Amino acid sequence: MTKVRVRFAPSPTGPLHMGGVRTALFNYLFAKKHGGDFILRIEDTDQKRYVPGAEDYIRAALQWVGIKLDEDPWNGGEFGPYRQSERKDLYRSYADQLIDSGHAYYAFDSSEELTEMRERLTKAKVPSPQYNAAVRMTMQNSLTLSADEVQRKLDAGDPYTIRVKVPRNEEIRFHDKIRGWVQVSSNAIDDKVIYKSDGMPTYHLANIVDDHLMKITHVIRGEEWLPSAPIHVLLYRYLGWEDSRPEFAHLPLILKPDGNGKLSKRDGDRLGFPVFPLEWVDPQSREVSSGYREKGYFPEAFVNMIAFLGWNPGSDQEVYSLEGLIEAFSLERVGKSGSKFDADKTRWYNQTYLRTKSNQELAELLKPTLVKESIPFEEEKLPGYVDLMKDRAFFVADMIEGAYLFIRPTEYDEKLLGKKWKEGSADLVLGLVEAFSKTDYSAETLHATFSKYLEENGIGMGAAMPLLRVFITGRGVGPGMFETMEFLGRDESESRLKLGLESRT
Questions:
Q1: Which residues touch 463 (CB under 8 Å, ≥6 apart)?
Q2: Tens digits of per-residue pLDDT, 135-175?
Q3: What is the spatial distance between Cα 73 and Cα 79, in angstroms, rounded to a whole number?
Q4: Which helix (H) or strand (E) holds 8?
Q5: Count of the separate structural domains present in the chain
Q6: How far is CA 192 from CA 97, 209, 272, 279, in A?
Q7: Which domain does 323 fall in, by range?
Q8: Whole-model pTM?
Q9: Which residues are catalytic?
């Protein structure tokens, strides 16, 4: 059986979108499920759009989510190099092969001539004005010029592109592992440029050549490449590689949470969530785009979230480790239709993973935030602190909400006190202080003592608990009251209650 080999081939034109990470993830899951290899290839044929730092960003993003590379531009591999810009001479030989076999041709048309062609077709009400079988014999190319004229232009260094020659009146058919059989009329396809005037191949030629030479068995990529698939099928045929053509699988789009259309950075900016795994600083504008890592998301939560955008395991289970995803994953359970992004669900995933971590681990993660915010803390008490705060938190940084556990309050929720402070409230609080002083100050005994005191004195919970909480913490909400008092200890709790009373005199 042929070993499964898949590739993720991003272009270094900016930060890697979460949709790109999902494509990489699905490739990785599929490869590892079948004992195969995952290859990272940099498709930098469009040198004009190359952005410095983008390659390093891609590498760091995949590393953050836990995707391990079997072959890549930095560590190499049997089929390198893995940057298309370093394989330039290789592509030209295959472009020449296509010309020699009559499946491609030189096109010398200027930009003005191409514009005129499109305008002419638009005026004639042609539905899709394009350079195709119906048009090419009216243009400046090696199909309409004599061999001598073509050679003169080449010798003179006239600019040209190389276009694939798409046949007329042919049904191009291929099987997609997600969408089933796909059939497209060749008349709907234009003669794509496969080699540009700058001496670089386009994606169409480069990816076919690379996938063949790198022995790629499955091409798993985004839905946006589905219209290009018929061209790729033709190129495999024209190059004599039809029998070794990889299987295709085109993933559905990740959709914006409101309305229709593909999720974009603009949607994230508008609705307040990241669309990139890591923070990105544009090298030219210095504009900062937020990232999931910097927002406090665990990589496991991010991976879990993107895995469920378009795929489901066929069960009610929603939380998976990366190893669990590998075991459960199949392309057959990837849907055809787009999947709406849900920012709240992403937060839920992060909260779920936060709660699985030990108090000691969370304490270590919280320390930098406490230091950054200049919040004093007792090292030995941090695990107990996070134990109190973690059930209310979505992110580690949320736990600084409980800073009042380290800093004695000097202000109190006056709105709450205005409602709850009555004649006799001071005696009530003093009575509780006295009752609590006779306990071991464990949460359990504090709770029991509180309940007994209220029952014996005919006092309602609503009259006592808000006062207790506001004098201990300064606010009306927070973690369990008696767990909080246990954490603070006898001396600190009593001091806070007495200081609260003093503030009312």
A1: 420, 422, 425, 428
A2: 999 999 999 999 999 999 999 999 999 999 999 999 999 99
A3: 10
A4: strand 5-8
A5: 5
A6: 16, 16, 39, 36
A7: 265-352
A8: 0.91
A9: 265
